Amino acid sequence: MPRSSTELPGVSELLATAVGAVGGTERPGQLAMAEAVSRAIRTGDHLAVQAGTGTGKSLAYLVPALLHAVEREATVVVSTATIALQRQLVDRDLPRLEKALAGPLGRKPTFAILKGRRNYLCLNKLDSGMQDEPDDAALFDPFAVSALGREVTRLREWVSDTDTGDRDELVPGVTEHAWRQVSVSARECLGASRCPIGTDCFAEKARAEAGRADLIVTNHALLAIDALQGFQVLPEHDLVIVDEAHDLVDRVTSAATAELTSAAVAAAARRAGRVCDQELADRLLEAGDGFTLILEDLPAGRLDALPTPLAGALSVIRDAAYACLSGLGPERSGDVEVATARKLAQSQLDEVHDTAVRLLRAFEADDAHRRDVVWRTGDSGVAAPRPPALRAAPLAVSGLLRERLFGQHTTVLTSATLTLGGTFDTMARSWGLPAEQGESVKTEGAATDKSIEGPKWTGLDVGSPFDHARSGILYLAKHLPPPGRDGLPPSYLNELAELMEAAGGRTLGLFSSMRAAKQATEALRKRSDQPILCQGEDSTALLVRKFAEDPATCLFGTLSLWQGVDVPGPSLQLVVVDRIPFPRPDDPLASARQRAVEARGGNGFLSVAATHAALLLAQGTGRLLRSTDDRGVVAVLDPRLATARYGGFLRASLPGYWTTSDAEVVRAALRRLDAAN
Questions:
Q1: Is residue 203 a part of any domain in this protein?
Q2: Confidence of residue 142 (pLDDT cuts 50, 70, 90)
Q3: Total count of domains within the chain
Q4: How far is 280 from 32, CA to CA, in rounded Å?
Q5: Domain check: are 193 and 304 in the same one?
């Protein structure tokens, strides 16, 4: 029999039970976070919690979330940015909690994982044979066509073996093109009531299971789609927990970005030709041809104004797509194959039409009030460049989050990196929350209430179990020259080589570009006996595994390594950052956001570029200490971190390492660590 809510234990008692069940040790920061989450659930105020690596933040939010779900018979959504964290929650944390809390809660709490419809195999599409059009590159390539055929055949065979139809369970995986042949988007789906195989639909089964669960694990992309779409994607819920919240804005921005390509227009025209007047479809195909010619002549980069020829091409595409949509006529019941073909055509035509409209409207406002930034993609210098595309992305998603997330659900946001420059202000503004009053209060359970206009929220930094000042050194190489545009200067390579030698390997090199990572790899392989792995030479997971297994090995790479490496122990005792990771000056989205802030009278550099750099620096330097026994050095070769006016803001975003600019002190410390291992 389930217990009544008055008989249920408190969150501190449940947390102690959970920690004991997983063989962990309860930490003050973990308990402070759990109690703060419980308080937010009771009051309905939103909560932002910075919890350093090793705090045990997953249990700190899962325990009060499950207590709330069981006590109130409510549903809780937990959203993550990465598949790795999703798997940790679903494969490790939640199964343990399910067993540990069943007794205290009076019943076993339930959980489910829910992904976007594209992640599940569509039985109707597989059965009807309504495959997507081949990529242009594959049309005349028999090898590509046969490879695609083999993959689709494998997927057909996999249907009889899978219970979930979840793409992530297919090992080894298949190409994106092959998966598109057997999956549909939410727009393309006929709907369970009209689909002849709707009762067996994998996506519907996953959604039904999620609807019955106490807690649903999903990702930021699906959370964004739920907020963006006019229809509900996630089941009814009253509490959202956003883990890896430092990535929320980027993931929502990505989900809200639209793209128009010549291939998309042509594919929509071909689909339309099957279900409406061929003359209408030909008009759209011709419009796409004209768009192709104009796009090829357009230089890559951000568009500050809409060129007249491009405006004309987009208008023709918009009108032709609308004509095709009108030509589809009303839906008719009966022939499922016809209904499926019509739905697929309508979905592609809607996307082409709506994107053309959005691109045209993007230029109607001035810089201070523009909602979207538009740019033409370009892959110059890439061995196999992709065809050009026109993209539109929102300049800000704060309004969307304020209205559709914070305005509808109590929300807890957590990460190891949320205070930039020493406060929650920067992240809060990007989420659509009001800035906090006064300075952020750092830990021992203290919190800061916000009483100004906007959604009420509380910021809490529960600190870290690591003693950063005793466990790590931040080395600022302020004697080096500022980084240039012509690759790594010789002095940077010399400094890196000396640090690696002192550390005996054990080095993670985080570079601001793949070009710099490869340059360092090639140069240092010639002068060092230490094995050096470089991102791109194998799968990132395999490279990280090799790096972790051999302390003498070094690993160099770029963006994904800044956030995706978890190597506790003596294999990683030196993290080297080549330069402050500002966004590229020609990055269309960052530069447009910076200009928009300046148009409203703000400091665009600090609001956009410095914030971007602070977040990545905090994430990158966080690779050093992954357990309480870890020791080591973070070395930043870019002297601007020590000398520039904005350096204080960036340093205040990092953990409190002992800081020095004395190279010999640092090398001696690394030699002692090497000798101790």
A1: no
A2: very low
A3: 4
A4: 63
A5: no
